[in-house]
Amino acid sequence: MRDAQDCLIVIDVQNDFCPGGALAVTGGDEIVPGINALMEEFPAVVLTQDWHPAGHSSFASQHPGAAPMSLTEMPYGPQVLWPDHCVQGTPGSAFHEGLRTDGDLIIRKGFRPAIDSYSAFFENDHATPTGLEGYLRSRGLTRLTLVGLATDFCVNYSAVDAARLGFDVTVRMDLCRAIDLEGSLAAAEAGMREAGVTLA
Ligand code: VGL
Ligand code: ZN
C-alpha cells in the first residue's frame, strides 16, 4: 500500500487518444485495465481531460495550408498543429469507456482558445497555472505517480513541471503510450530523467 502523500495522476485517457480516435495513440486502450488496478492502491486519484473549444488554435484546421502534425510558431513558442481532437462535450473528449473515473478530481486543460496545454500544471506558455499544484499541496500530496497518454506530450510535460515544482515524480512507462513524432519519445525520456523524474 501507499502512504497518505501518494497521488496517482491519470493523464488524458480519452477516446480521441485511443484507437479509432482523432489523434489515436497506438495501443492507447491497452493501458486501461492496468490503470484501473493501480487506482485501488492509491489514497488519492486525479484524472486529467484534454478539453478544447471547437476551433482551438492548436488545431491544424485553423491554420490555412498547415498539415496536421506540422510545427508552427505561437506567441508562446513552437506548437505542433494537431488534428481536431478532444472538443468539449464530444464523444472524442470522453474518457475511455473502460476507465474508472471515480477519482477525487478531474482537471480539464486546453480550454483557452489561444493557448494549448500539454501539462496538467501549466499551459504551454509555462506560466498560466491550471490550479493542480495548489490542489495537491493543500491536500499534502507530494508523491506523484503518472500514467496515461501520451508519454511524449502530456505525460512528459506534466512530469517535468511536477518535478520542477518539487514533487517526487514517478512515471509508470508500462502504463503510458506515446505518439512518437520524429524522435519525441526518446527526447521526452531524456528530458524527464534530466528533470529528476523516475521512469519505472
Ligand atoms: C495531447 C497532443 C495534443 C496529449 C493533447 O494528451 O498528449 N497531445 N493534445
Ligand atoms: Zn490537445
UniProtKB/TrEMBL annotation:
Pfam families for the chain: Isochorismatase
Enzyme class: hydrolase
Record domain Isochorismatase-like: where: 7-195
Any one GO molecular-function label of the UniProt entry: metal ion binding
EC nos: 3.5.1.19
Matching InterPro entries: Isochorismatase-like_dom, Isochorismatase-like_sf, Isochorismatase_Nicotinamidase
Transmembrane segments: none
Pathway: Cofactor biosynthesis; nicotinate biosynthesis; nicotinate from nicotinamide: step 1/1
Keyword annotations: Hydrolase, Metal-binding, Pyridine nucleotide biosynthesis
GO BP terms, alphabetized: pyridine nucleotide biosynthetic process
Family per similarity comment: Belongs to the isochorismatase family.
Name the UniProt record assigns to this protein: Nicotinamidase
This protein's encoding gene: pncA
